[in-house]
Amino acid sequence: MSKNKKIAILGGGESGVGTAILALKQGYDVFVSDFGKIKDKYKAELEKLGVSWEEAGHTEAKIMDASVVMKSPGIPDNAALVIKIKEQGIPVISEIEFAAEYTSAKIIGITGSNGKTTITKWIYHILKNSGLNVSMAGNVGDSFAKQVAGNPVDYFVLELSSFQLDGIVDFRPDIAVLANITPDHLDRYNYNLDEYVASKFRITKNQTEDDFFIYDADDEIISKWLKANSVKAQMIPFSLQKKLEMGAYLEDNNIKINLNNTQFIMPNSALALEGKHNIKNAMAASTVSQLLRIRKETIRASMENFQGVEHRLEKVLKINNVMYVNDSKATNTNATYYALESMESETVWIVGGVDKGNVYSELLPLVNEKVKAIICLGVDNSKIFEAFGNCVDTIVETNSMKEAVGMAYKFAERGNTVLLSPACASFDLFENYEDRGRQFKDSVRNL
């Protein structure tokens, strides 16, 4: 087989195996290489496919023989092997870039520092309820490549991280949503916010005048970028702060969306999810639905009966009149800001993990107002002690979820809330944020 049909896949996880499935279907000679261990379920899939693979190290000669390399999103661009591949002139792309070439489906792409999972699932929920042939991929569900290989649909709703967008060349969503931008993953962007912002805006870089770009007009970082740069797509803002001639805004406790000389109106009290951030999430999801000309009745019903996202302000149990809330998906301070803002009672806050360059000062007013005790759950909690040590009477360190929940049970009184909203990544003590959230729920149920 000629070199022009060889693909090397770095990473044997969900996106890597999905790419292997699609690449094989497209006639590529496929080699999967993982520096760590490949999970048994993915090994079994690769074996079934008859794909050549390796783990616990890379055979560079085989990788350098490829015409294209797909890099899983968890591998940084500055990894020595990635730099070497690029120096050889071999394209290094993301799964999203590779898979998009092989589908004619309309693509709705959603990115942002916070809220992108909720918006993605909400859009999918509306489209599904309207009877469209739609699937959801990216950071949620089965990989995009795997679904392109075996699941022909008319619409894809893709949740896209900055890491996935870093590896695109020609990828172009028909509708792009940029929910918000706050400092996150700065450890991957040389602690340079501008690099991270540029990464997020890659979602619109290949869009044309026929495409749509939906964005938060209240977000200062987004507004600043848009003043200095141009976007080809038709721009549709949403806002809680200003009335818009075109776009979505809030007026008299109603969400109003003006598009194509038609108006959609819905009381925000009817939304399935609480909190100001979810009004914005609803605006983004319903704007997409309006562009796709989905019936207003379907949009309203789907806004009201959406179930929300696991590990995102998820009410777990009420014990002794204390509500336990799982917000493990809050892996940065902005997500935690939304969580604390939505608390209506005195709160015992469980926080901590792997800090990605957090600045905690924005949380100080909310912590002063709402938090009665802080329970640190991480290997290094020094920044949390430094930021909040003078705000609360009680701040303690714990080494396991069971211990943290036990402490919270001790500190919480009737009418209080216990909130797990870590503002940090989970990799010091947990496999991922899902594992952290599940351990929280298990520990609460075992009280």
TrEMBL record:
It is found in: Cytoplasm. Residues 311-424 form the Mur ligase C-terminal domain. It is an enzyme of class 6 (ligase). It catalyses: UDP-N-acetyl-alpha-D-muramoyl-L-alanine + D-glutamate + ATP = UDP-N-acetyl-alpha-D-muramoyl-L-alanyl-D-glutamate + ADP + phosphate + H(+). Pfam families: Mur_ligase_C (PF02875), Mur_ligase_M (PF08245), MurD_N (PF21377). Its EC number is 6.3.2.9. Belongs to the MurCDEF family. This is UDP-N-acetylmuramoylalanine--D-glutamate ligase.
